[in-house]
Amino acid sequence: MKSYKYILLFLFTAFLTSCENELEIDPQQSQDSDITLSTEGGITNILNGAYALVADADVYGGRMLVSGDLMAQTGVTATTDFRWRGTYGEFRQMYTKTILTDNAFVRQIYKRCYDIINAGNIVIENIDKVKDPDKQARMIAEAKFLKSLAYFDLVRFFAQPYEAGKQNTQLGVIIRPNAIYDYNSDLSKERSTVEEVYALVISGLNDAYDNLPEENSFYPDKYAAKALLARVYLQQQNYEAARDAADEVISDSGRALSNTYAGAFNHDVNQIEDIFAVQITKQTGENEIVVMYASEGNGGRGGDIEIRNTYLDKFTDPNDVRANFNYVNDDNGRLLTSKYTNQFGDVGIIRLAEMYLIRAESNFRLGTAVGDTPLNDINLIRSRANATNFILITLDDILAERELELAMEGFAIHDLKRTKGSIDVNGDGSVLIPYNDNKLVFPIPLREMDTNGKITQNPGYGS
């Protein structure tokens, strides 16, 4: 019963505080687990706790996005876009592709994602305590959205990439279909396949889409579910489904591009371009992506991630505002992005510009023009950035535009894997780290390996 109460208490109180370490709770503050699970207020608070876990610095509060950026860079020579200048050994391992099984950041990404999944399962299994059927349906849908988000990023980081046209029987991650109340029990289980995890994610998001409202404050609405589906389908290279999902969000969600590129970032409340954003406040979380990317004056550590000329050289139009959306840190001379200068600003997870990029790429690959032509979609984004419009467009142009628009937002390693790219270590093609190299996959954390007698470690990390 001790573990049973602990996990419920953790979820119940997580919406009040998001922390780096395990919560230390005074027993007098605890609420009996039976009471928590038997009241509507208790189940609602567990769902609130799931949102607080999402906002945790370890995951969508920023660290997971930073990991996605650093895994696509290399510390050997100045050939990639960004340079790690910080002191965190965990991030340096990602940057140099020397990750250890006891990497604390990898461990916490893994753990927090499963905490989110377990919170969602608890809500779903105890939803009968909520009396209003409409509220029941919405809460289940929100729980499924959060679970799908967590599973999707788990399988992208901890497994070999999904490849279209293959059976994708490579090991993915553990699927936990039921809530865990007692962590003292034997929870040993082997990982499901990548195909099975993707099928679960897609099913969960479709269910969420069917039952979420069209408007849901800053919580996910039905178009957030559809937008995440567009991202999932794109990762699968299912371009028809990705195109149609992105087109629906563009056409029906009521979102629009911010008037300026700067307007898409550094705000405390959702803006018109936001489809889903993690809400950060002084009480509930820390914007960890600001901590890593910003100067001390802007709430960071001085610029742990520095922009290189290799990134700036990708801009061919000197009028493109994105090329100059940066600043020099007076303390150390590092060039830093201006995307992250609000310490308690929201962390954007999905914004509308991504949907235009998905629709453009998918239409181009399919030779279609659903919603609009690829040329018009890309030029809409370029016009917002004051960049010269294209007259003709290629797939390389579209992929380059995605790289310029979404840089430093956590997409880099996932796009590299999807497009079967490589990290050019020396800049001359002599040493390449291909998209399916084992070094680009996180290890199953040592803690999981020590307690799970059935799980298989990823290649390259021992048994």
UniProtKB/TrEMBL annotation:
Q: Which UniProt keywords apply?
A: Cell outer membrane, Membrane, Signal
Q: Which family does it belong to?
A: Belongs to the SusD family.
Under the heading Gene3D superfamilies, the entry gives: 1.25.40.390
* Organism per entry: Flavobacterium procerum
- Which residues belong to any copy of the RagB/SusD domain? 337-461
Please give the CDD domains that the UniProt record associates with this protein: SusD
User: Which residues belong to any copy of the SusD-like N-terminal domain?
Assistant: 24-234
* Stored InterPro entries: SusD-like_N, SusD_RagB_dom, TPR-like_helical_dom_sf
Q: What name does UniProt use for this protein?
A: RagB/SusD family nutrient uptake outer membrane protein
Cell compartment(s), UniProt: Cell outer membrane
